User: Fold M23ase beta-sheet core domain-containing protein from Flavobacterium ginsengiterrae.
Amino acid sequence: MAKLKIYGKSDPSVGIKEYYSIYDLFGSSTTVQLAGPNFQNIPDDQIKWSVWILLGGSWIKTEENNKTGATVEYTFSPKSLKRKGIRMLVDINGEKAVLDIKTKQAVESKIMFVELLDINKKKPTQLFSYGQTIVARVHCVNMEKFPIYVTLWEDDGGKGKENATDIKIDEKKGNILDGIVDVEFYLDPARAWLANIKPDANASNEGAFHEYYVTAEFYKKVSKPSKSVDVINPDYKDDPYAQKPAPKQQEPETKKETQTPAEKKGPSQKEQKGIAKSDRKAYDYAEKKVAVNTTVSFDPTQNFVDSMMKVGSKDSIWNRKDKLVIFPLLVKPENDIENKWGRIRNWASKAGTNMTTFNSNRDSGTRKHAARDLYTNALETVVAIADGKVLEVRLFYCETYQVTIRHTLKDGRDFIIRYGELDPKSITVKVGESVTQKQKLGKTGKLLKYLKKQKIYVPLMEIDDVTVFMLHFEHFSNGSKFDLKRFPTTNESKPYNRRNDLIDSLAILQEGYNNSFGSNSAEYIHESREFTEHDARLALMKIYDIYGKEMAKTIESIYRWEADHFKSDQYKICGSAGMETSGKSSGPNYGWDGSLYIKYPEYKPIGIWESFENKGKSGLGGNDQDKINKKKYIKFPSVEAAMMYIADFIDRHDGNVGRWHSLTPKVQEEYVKSIKTAIPRIVNKF
Assistant:
């Protein structure tokens, strides 16, 4: 009886598709050698393949690599180069064969492909809709830490069309890590009008979907695009992916030795349409189409700040001189990042992360917040963000009033804004009146709660004994439903108790903020919620994966000892274990070595936080407490950034953990003993 065996390369290059079989398809014989009579005529679904990796001394099965069939294909990623062990297994009704794999670096640098994922970085189970976030994941080989430029385009014409009107929506840059880079694009419902400006009669899906495509580009003096992506139109019934891509064009055989990966593939969609920059030629490219449904589907976990479709798009359509939308306040709100409540109640934070944001909990989680709340000092003026018509003026919540206006803009946008929680006595408009941009509507109000026993009203919102006045700002995307008797904005629909065209108002507020105050909020607004132990857990997983278990345990112990088990204010605000600025140094390095930020620009500090230090470990092996001068602590964008800095520091100093604390050998020795008393409970469970 013949023994089952795996045929195929045991030393594949990363990024190269390789075939593995139970048959000797790769031998020198002209006759295919079968696995044996007992393995012939076996149904494909009974021939099961899997890939296992050696992790922490145990072999772990990678479920995503399960396949069936007599012959299968695998392409190994750059991450496989760091694996301590890789094992391929084939199982036929209990009979098994194993092949140990040791991957090697690719000779050629290239972008393999671009895949489009949902906000959770999973393969989407349905087509995208406006209000969701697309994650473009670019897979590369032999390009570690190099920058990749990723662009989202609105597709207004078919391939080969001269003077195509494709519009650049957003461009972002990321650095390759372990062979991939992820870039997020938010499909803003307020900008769906853009896809309908110049419909193309020859486009197969025009009217059914709004078609976009993503390009990922690497410049070795060159660039690479990704495949297009359509956004669903719910009224269209045909298959959105019926149209087949044009065949790749090949260069003459004589040029193969000097061709770049991009030249081997032929002209990209950008090049065929004449919208690629003539002074920048892609070294490689890949294109990915996406069809977007014209309905709105809110994803409560999406990152609205990072996905603003203005960042890095100097030649974008959004860089207009005319200001179609302005901010609803004449001053920046007090919960702006620069002002007194910006850290604890930042209005521009991710949805659901603090009580002023869209989708945050109300009534113990039985209801969700339908707006963005802009905190102000007493009775700040509220103005119309654009021209419009007043639809409703009435009592709203806790003795405040609301003004609801339909805004129809010159660019085709048509939507409804509810200006809520206004002071009742300040209202200056009536139902049916037309308003102009920047016209006063009223003033911010204070919420009053009635205490039945005392028969008095008391302020509902106070912070540090200061009464909060505010504007509650709601956005409904469908202005055509302006008859509020037929289509009331408030109803019993969960979770917001609002009609179904309610969307997060963040995007339009940021557009108005930029137009009113001359700055792009996305440049300086960072997540305001305090860091928690959960952030540390995620970061320690990253450390574990890159540096190993011992380094991860060391980093956790340092944090537990220096940051009071992730409970110190310094940790909650800065994300670090007590990194102070050096002298009068400035950002982003603040006197520290900045080499890590060259590798990972996303880890650059975002500012400083000043505070008197707590006693901490003063007298217990730590530095003496300074009770006179405030300390300046470096603020990081994430706990991962701060932990990666410490891990990199220790690695650069040959594993000397004590060097993180002191230059003195004796003090270093005592420090190491001290942190070992802090049990790394998180990493111990990995």
